[in-house]
Amino acid sequence: MIELIQQNKLAEFKQALKELEELQIHEYLYEILDNNPVEIDEESFFPDGYQIEFLEGLQLYKALEKSEINSDHLKQYSNLLVHLAFFMSSHVQNLAHEAMSQNTYLTDLGHIYRFRIYPEIREGIQELIDLLKDRSGEEKSIANLAAAKAKVSNSIDNILEKYQIGEDMLQFAEAFEKVGETETAIKIHQGIMNDFECESVKLSSGIIPEMTHVDDRPEAEIEIFNKAKINFERLTGKKVQEPNRIHIKESRQSEKMAPSTIETSHSHDELINSSQPDHSSSKPSGLLDKVKRFFGKN
Asked: Which residue of 33, 93, 120, 277 has the lowest C-beta tally within 10 Å?
C-alpha cells in the first residue's frame, strides 16, 4: 500500500483500504478519503490494539504527507492519529497504575495483562510531533502528542534513562506554553527542577542553608535541571535560589565530605512518589508525581 501512495495512485490505495479488514485505522482512513465524517473515542479501537493501530497509521501518514493527497483529508487523518495516540497513552498509563498497585512495573506484567508494551511508540509519537511542527496551526495537536509521550515515558520509566523522561517533560511544558497553558508549563518546570535536583539536596531538611551538598548527578540530568530552571525563571520572573553544591568530579574531597554534608530527613520531596516499588537499581522512583496526578485528570 505504501507503494501505491508513493506512486500517487490514491484511488487504488483507497480501494485497497476498503478491502482490508485487519485494522480499524484502515477503515477510518478509507472513510476520510471517501469524504465521510469520522469521529472516534476510546471505544473506537480495541485497547489491546492501540499500539499496532498507531504504528501502522503513522507509517501511512508519513507516506501520505509526501503524496498529492487532499490537504483537508491529511488534516483529518493527522487529527485521528493524535486522538489515537492520546487514547493509547491513557491506556498504557492506567495499566502502569495497576502494576504499581502490585508493587511492580508494567513492563514486568505483560503476561498478566496480555499486553505487550512497545517502547517504540515513544519514537513514533515523537516522529508525528516532528512532522506536525513543519505544518502551521498544529500547536494543539503537538501539545496533545507531547502529553501522550510524557504519559508513556512515565509509565515505563524503569526501562528508560532518567534524562530521557526529563526531555519529554521539557517538551511537554514547551508545547503547553505555546497553546497558552502557561501555569501548567510553570508547574511542569518546577516539578522537573524538584525531581532533577541532586539527592543530597532532596534529603536535606534545609535547616543549614550554607551547607555544601555533594552533587553526583550525570551531566545529562544537570542539563535537564538547568533548562527547566531557565524556563521557570523566564515564565515567572522569579530568580531561583540554588543551594551550594560541589560536583563529585570537581574535588577529590567530595567523597570524604559526603557523610558530613548530607543531612538526612525522613521525608523526600513531595514530588517523589512513595508508592513506587523499591527495585534495587539506580532508576528514579515515582518520577514527577504531581505531573502524573495532572495526567490523571485528563
From this structure: 120
Q: Give residue limits of the domains in the chain.
A: 1-160, 163-258
**Integer Cα distance of 192 and 179 in angstroms:** 20
Give the pLDDT of residue 114.
Answer: 59
Smallest CA-to-CA distance from 88 within 112, 132, 120 is with 120
- Within 8 A by CB and 6+ apart from 32, the residues are 38, 73, 76, 77, 80
pLDDT computed for residue 208 by the predictor: 62
Residue 284 has pLDDT above 70, yes or no: no
Rounded distance between C-alpha atoms, residue 231 and residue 205, angstroms: 26
Q: What burial class does residue 264 get, using C-beta atoms within 10 Å of its C-beta: 0-12 exposed, 13-18 middle, 19+ buried?
A: exposed
| Rounded Cα–Cα distance for residues 182 and 166 (Å) | 18
So what's the pLDDT on residue 210? 63
Higher local confidence (pLDDT), 117 or 258? 117
Of 8, 3, 128, which is closest to residue 57 (Cα–Cα)? 128
* DSSP letter, residue 157: G
Residues ≥6 apart with Cβ < 8 Å to 182:
176, 235
Directed axis angle between helix 162-178 and helix 182-195, to 10°? 160
What's the pLDDT tens digit per position in 72-118?
999 999 999 999 999 999 999 999 998 888 888 888 875 565 568 88
